[in-house]
Amino acid sequence: MDFITSENILLIGSVLLIAGVLIGKSSYRFGLPLLLIFLIVGMAFGIDGVGIQFSDMHTAQFIGMVALCIILFSGGLSTRLSAIRPVIVPGLLLSTVGVLLTALVTGVFIWWLSGMSWTNIHFALLPSLLLAATMSSTDSASVFGILGSQKVELRNNLRPMLELESGSNDPMAYMLTIILLEAITLGNSLSAGGIVLELILQFGVGAAGGFIIGKTTLWLIKAYGRIGGKASRKEDPSQATSMISILMIGCVFFTFAVTTALSGNGYLAVYICGIIIGNGRLPNQRGIVKFIDGLTWLAQIVVFLMLGLLVNPHEMIDVAAVSLLVGVFMIFVGRPLSVFLSLAPVRKISLRSKLLVSWVGLRGAVPIIFATYPVIADIEGAGQIFNIVFFVTLLSLLIQGTTVIASARKLKLIDTDHDSEEDFGVELADELPTTLQTVTLSAEDLARGNTLKDMHLPSGSLVMMIRRGSRYIVPNGSRRLQPGDKLLIIKEEPVSLPPSGS
Known about the structure:
Blueprint: H1 6-24, H2 27-30, H3 34-45, H4 57-77, H5 81-84, H6 88-114, H7 125-134, H8 140-149, E1 153-154, H9 158-168, H10 170-186, H11 192-229, H12 237-261, H13 266-278, H14 285-310, H15 313-316, H16 320-342, H17 351-359, H18 365-377, H19 382-399, H20 404-410, E2 414-415, E3 434-440, E4 461-468, E5 471-473, E6 486-492
Antiparallel strand pairs: 1-2, 3-6, 4-5, 4-6
């Protein structure tokens, strides 16, 4: 009887998803990154656990590519240009120079380790650099997941800088991986001029492709609205939101495929396309973003479960000692050194900020996906490369992923004054001419009186709700307020009417 049937694949997939979600709920209690839980669940169901055998590297690479496109697009979609503008220079330095330095420093260390008689790895310089290149970028899914799940903000614009770095450094790591792989498999000699030209082509075509297709997608969304406007019956708003979201996903994969076919960097194009669309005018933008967020979580969960199934834990034991040394070197030497060197021209970034950026060098799904390329190319030592990358990823998520917020608190980089309307879970339709604002009351705010009627709110403003600790209170004029209370205020925005006769 054939075990591999459509029904069994659906059964196993559904069990993995359900188990991962339920077990992942405990990650908040123990402070573990949620995506690490899914990776461990995949390993538990794999060949050394329940016994599910999955070793198809080509399928894993394809699924990883699809998931990475969605993750990077989602990251770009949520990136506000106004937020990243002040940190665009350090962010891009980290995602280019920082990645290159990490690969170079770590690669030389791996090469040095390979020359030791007591180690069980024996890589030449190019394979050592290749191994380091696959791990040279921070993982956008891990960074977005940890920063997004914690209701804290970082001082000194660190959060947008970290998100910009993690969202834009995968293309550089991908380029280094492909260049080194070609040099090993084809026997090409590496020349600085050739590498620079290929990087310019990849990044130039990728950036141009992402920008052009992003603008074209915005035009298509407007065209979709105009087509619906001419119909005798109006389309249901929820259906329109779903259709536009699907149109955007189609454009994501179109962006990647076309840019890659034109010798550009498809991952960079997808990220830039997301930034262009996210900063444009979208109908029911909040609903679209929620749809994409849900799809992104599904992509992340599927890829981490799949990668967990792909690895054979017993094979990692053979390279555990070397992997531990490589991982510790990357965390405590390679990453900090690359951060401090790449940010040296930016003098306004403080020492504490650089230390936190050094610590948020999370590895995740992307290095493991990139590690499948040497296996598929069948280069010597590819199995060891894959297992070392997997081990270092687990080490990074365990050590760095569980201590990001604690490190930020230790360095006094948590912004305790940040307020968000998300504390109340209230959303307004995008088309309404109103905005939401939260205010945390201090003793000075209540000096003239401790009731709402004593407060002089601007004209057109109204307090919708009060939050006191975990309690939500419906306001009235005589309600006595206390320092630390959070007020959710709805504010009326002026509406510009079209000129008469238009």
